[in-house]
Design a protein that fits this description.
single chain, 82 residues, alpha+beta, two-stranded antiparallel sheet, 2 strands, 33% helix
Amino acid sequence: MDAAARMTSKGQVTVPKAVRDALGIKEGDEVVFRVEGTRAVLARTPDFLALAGTIRVPAAKRNVAWDEVIRRAHSDRSEMRR
């Protein structure tokens, strides 16, 4: 789908209704812009809180400090390269 919009003097653009409907964007939702070369891609920001609990985390990995998670990941990656 292509949809055109005009930028205002303040750099604002209204997202056309057809695009809002296609992406499920409502008032108050956040969006993200990704620049790819000479194009910008607009996407609805996922609601990460809605994802909470949807992925099973092994007991050994629960309640571990983030620094430790990163350290273990780097260590595991190093061992895989050997």
